[in-house]
DNA sequence: CTAAAGCGTTGATAAATATCAACGCTTTTT
DNA sequence: AAAAAGCGTTGATATTTATCAACGCTTTAG
């Protein structure tokens, strides 16, 4: 069960991983299964866990004054899931995170993660890389959002993330892109011609 | 000249900073002055330097097919400036970074930064915190962009970043928010009433 | 000192996108 | 098996935002 996580760490660090270190990691991460639609984190709570998705699909979203959901993240296998803002700042989360499919996770307490970062150099390396990548991805998305039309944003997204298109329904993709489901439907209709 | 940087590091790390370590940091960072409108990084080049702004104001922007500029970042004193995507991935940058005012920087080679991260624990701590914060800020901005109207985005921005409003002209703020300068002008007119 | 460029504003119009309502089809629940 | 909920689509319309053009005012450059 933990082997997927250990593989992932090895692939994202240059430093080696001793078997002692592997033990520390395995000890910190517990398997957790969530059925479709179950919450990993609810708005208002402080995010105390970080999860690594072994199998499944999840989403992170905010709910505005009118009750409309806005998808801020979609996650599938090999993604790290948490509300970083809440976990780092120890503030109540503005987001909900739940499962879109039955999902198998490996979860660790945020505090234990910090411990591993100090104790296991390759783990620290991996998380640093993750932090940087998250920022880069977020920047690209932001740049795309302020620079492009809805149509271009969808095309870019579909090109770069075909897995998500297959896995999540259109209305979630639309919300992720910051447009309505009707607009996305029309964009797709255009694209075919 | 370097004291502002050393202070900054101390404030953003829990670990102490020995005088040996201070020496390493000072050695890695060279002062650099840029006159208004000079480039720190030009599109197409790999970002080889990271800068810490001691005094001044800068911007990072992309230029689309039609020659329109889209501001992705505004920077002032105590901000770190670089194209992270280019620096981390070692790919040609899609952005320009230039000065909006005469600016004093402390710059270090990306490679030397990586060295410091390994050698000086508190420096590593500080950069990790910066990475996390950058991501959080980027996430907030993204969430605001997909959830709110232009008007709310401007209000939020003006509330949270009054320094930027004072320091940069409206058309740059507009571009930063992903709207045209005319629209921002009209939003501001409404707001007064 | 004068010309040019930069900046913010306004008006008229066009384009993009949202909203509201309704419909068929499929999947899930009872 | 029937009812309900979820999903994508379409049409009519409203709203938001962009575009284009012009103008005064200020700052910068020659």
Automatic annotation (TrEMBL), chains A, B:
Residues 32-119 form the Cyclic nucleotide-binding domain. It comes from the Bacteria. InterPro entries: cNMP-bd_dom (IPR000595), cNMP-bd_dom_sf (IPR018490), RmlC-like_jellyroll (IPR014710). Coiled coil: none annotated. It holds the Pfam family cNMP_binding. This is Crp/Fnr family transcriptional regulator. It comes from Mucilaginibacter aquariorum.
């Amino acid at each position: 069960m933990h082997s997927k996580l250990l593989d992932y760490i090895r692939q994202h660090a240059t430093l080696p991983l001793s078997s002692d270190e592997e033990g520390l990691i395995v000890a910190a991460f517990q398997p957790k299964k969530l059925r479709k639609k179950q919450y990993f984190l609810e708005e208002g709570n402080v995010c105390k866990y970080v999860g690594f998705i072994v199998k499944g699909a999840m989403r992170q979203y905010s709910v505005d004054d009118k009750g409309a959901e806005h998808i801020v993240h979609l996650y599938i296998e090999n993604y790290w899931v948490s509300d970083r803002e809440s976990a780092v700042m120890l503030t109540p989360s503005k987001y909900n995170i739940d499962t879109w499919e039955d999902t198998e996770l490996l979860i660790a307490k945020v505090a234990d993660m910090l411990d591993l970062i100090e104790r296991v150099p390759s783990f620290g390396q991996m998380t640093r890389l993750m932090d940087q990548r998250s920022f880069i991805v977020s920047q690209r998305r932001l740049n795309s959002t302020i620079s492009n039309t809805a149509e271009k944003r969808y095309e870019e997204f579909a090109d770069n993330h075909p897995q998500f298109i297959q896995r999540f329904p259109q209305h979630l993709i639309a919300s992720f892109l910051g447009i309505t489901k009707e607009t996305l439907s029309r964009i797709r209709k255009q694209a075919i011609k």
